[in-house]
Amino acid sequence: MIQQLKMTRGVLAVIFCLAVLLGVCISIFASEPTERLLAIRTFGLGFCSFGIALPLGILIAWVCMGRGWISTFVLLGTVASLFIPMFIHVSAWDAAFGKLGWLTSVQGQILVPLIPGWWAASWIHGIAASSQVAIIFLVGLSFGGRVFEEQALLDTSSLRVFWSVTIVRLWPLGVLAFLWVVVGCSREIAVTDLYQIGTLAEQIYLGYSLSGNSAGGAGFDGGIGGVGYGLTLGLMAVLVALSTVLFFAVTKTEYEAGGFQAVRTERSGPAKNLAGIGLMVITFLIPIGNVVLRACFYVRPVNGVPTQGYSVVQCFSAIRRACFDYQDEFIWSSIIAFASASMILFLATWISAMGRRFGWAQVLFALTLAATFALPGPLLGTAIASVTSSVDGQWLVWLFNYTVFAPVLANFIFCWPLGALVVWFVFREIPEDALESARVEGAGGITRYLSLGLKANWLPLVGCWMITFACCFGELSASQIVRPAGMDTVPRKMLGDLHAGVNELTAGITIVTVLVIVGISAAGWWVVNLSHKLSERKYS
Known about the structure:
This protein is mainly alpha-helical. 77% of the residues lie in helices and 3% in strands. Strand 3 and strand 4 (305-310) form a beta hairpin. It is globular and about 75 Å long.
């Protein structure tokens, strides 16, 4: 049985991934010293973050597999944290150990972060990635593999089953999680820009910024901004393409065969409940408490002496001020997110509908996922800025420099993987019998797309659009480079404010942004689940 398990398509795909990854590592050490150091920093940050995210992610997945209110809360919190942008994680933790953090103040430090930049960046990236790792393991565990453990437990001890069966079955998911975390650390700049960690994305962004915000000055042919361009494209494309292949190799056959099933079958025991409480404290309550505590902070003169204190009234005052001070930024972020989410939904539904019949559409879908998820945000933004600076024509200049077209395009490409995956799996649930009946009745491709695709699935697509909107609202890395003059967004302004530390106003806007993103994404998730239950009743 174990030998048969080892020869699954997922394991073979992982072996291929490791072989190519080894070749990439050899090519890195054979490259120029500057690019080598850049790659080592990127992989080092990813590896440290993975060391934090893997145990937390596995523990979260284990708790979420149980039944009970604690497991339910951990699962809901894990799903919600998938849509929390990185700059929110930065604000939540920097409010504790940053320049103006409450822990820093308790230690008597003034404008001196309590934790060094490298370890602070690793911790924030690790905490943010733990929910993603947990979802990867939850999805992997949901494809009917539990039967191997159940059969092996009849013949040997649970410890031997864990080492001989469970590890063999789950280590491909561990490789996928590692690739996911490394790529995530390579394409975001919110953490690395604040703590000055020279990763691939940060170096490209610095090259663009130091060139005077000129895309041509950043350059694709060398200089500060040019360092690592070829390495970025080659390395990230290989890693994400292989992880995409691994994902489809592990899930495609079982999903199409109807093998996907919920794993929450056993009621949570005391150990699982205790672990769940600890996880809620570490991943949810402490970050939220840091921001709320910082929003409640005030300094008032008492008998001529500045006195520190905390007040709930001050927290509401900070939230009110944040809403007024960030009013224009909320409007621009909403407009960009609305247009980007609509574009993603339209294109993803079309590709998903085509993928039900044509194999090339599935290949195209996988390639677009790999390409867009591989690109670091600053590289994508710099490429778009380079095009906009070289266009001729009055209409094109107006389009790129005076409208939201450029940030919407950057937002659309950067957020494509998440939105497209959600729509893809929703469309895969359309029964094949319904499609065959429509074909027999003579319905064409466009008719089937409109009737069975959009009209019959308008409710889950609304939920998908809301989830995608929440993701696009918090996008930072790509769109901030291509913003026209006079147009600012919430993520961009928050990143600028975070460099001075998390004060009361920054904490207030963090609370507001979390409520907006979590509220919209949770509502979208509820709509998708509701439509799924209604669909099960309809076709049962």
